Amino acid sequence: MSSISVLGEDEVSSFFESSPPLKNMEEIVHKLNGFIQLNSTGGRRIVCVTSGGTTVPLEQRCVRYIDNFSSGNRGAASTENFVKAGYAVIFLFRRGTCQPYCRSLPDDPFLECFQFPDNTNIRVHASHAEAVKMAVMDQQAAVAEARLLKLPFTTIYEYLQMLRLIATAMKDVGPCSMFYLAAAVSDFYVPWKSMVEHKIESGSGPLDIRLAQVPKMLSILRTNWAPKAFCISFKLETDSKILIEKATKALQKYKVHAVVANELSTRKEEVVVVSSSGNVVVRCNSEKPESIVEDNLIRLIVDRHSTYIKEFGT
Ligand code: PMT
């Protein structure tokens, strides 16, 4: 079998060729290059954290779409921990999902945090004052120190094009770069050219749609886009009996450095880091009520990344 068919390069090329182009590509490239240059010349490690689920539009002027579940909590909490560990983070996130530094805020912060003592003033409600202060200060500090670059996506088309742009832009950062792929990425899609333009009409019985397979980008990312980067992928299952087996297969198949395996209902309490050096169960600290699984997970990943950089000899 040739390397082309192993990697599915033909499928990948045709996916990108048939994708609607990114609307603001030049602006994204400009932001990315500035952020990467600033941080890599300062010797800082850079991680791309992907977060939230991708959508698959069913119509070009999209009214209906298929979605992949992810609240974005994992990606947001991991981003905070990477920044704390000294990394610069490119946060590639689904619009409308959980954002870094916002976990302590109520669900609807604008409506619940603020009050109007009179017509000209706006005030933070005393019960939320500390949470709002910390969220605003931490986020502003991360952005001002060029530690956080946020790039939003919605569709699978946007996500994969942006991931490729980021990987290409980070190529020269080599082993000091990392991909932490926590986004829930569509496995099936409607190719743009075979998609209807206008809203699908209802009233004529059941709807038949043929979905094509989205090429797995992990192989291409590892082999072509960013071969020297440290790469962490995720495996989500709802059946715990097959989780570790699936994660182990993904580790071998895509040659990533570790796979974070999680089961949907327990994902906030426990994950298993599957790698060639064995499987490590990571949980939150039971003695600390405010502790989250990402505190220990990112500590472990950062340690593994340090070892990788040393082995690389930089
Ligand atoms: O956001 P939360 O609510 O906090 O939940 C976090 C999470 C459960 C979403 C997260 O921890 C997680 O597991 N994310 C990955 C979910 C997923 O899509 O798993 P998968 O088995 O379908 O994909 C496995 C890997 O293949 C992923 O790293 C993905 O980036 C990659 N992939 C997937 C599809 C595709 N076409 N190409 C890919 O490269």
From TrEMBL:
Keywords: Coenzyme A biosynthesis, Ligase. Coiled coil: none annotated. Pathway: Cofactor biosynthesis; coenzyme A biosynthesis; CoA from (R)-pantothenate: step 2/5. GO terms for molecular function: phosphopantothenate--cysteine ligase activity. Residues 46-92, 165-270 form the DNA/pantothenate metabolism flavoprotein C-terminal domain. InterPro entries: CoaB-like_sf (IPR035929), DNA/pantothenate-metab_flavo_C (IPR007085). GO terms for biological process: coenzyme A biosynthetic process. Belongs to the PPC synthetase family. This is Phosphopantothenate--cysteine ligase 2 isoform X1.
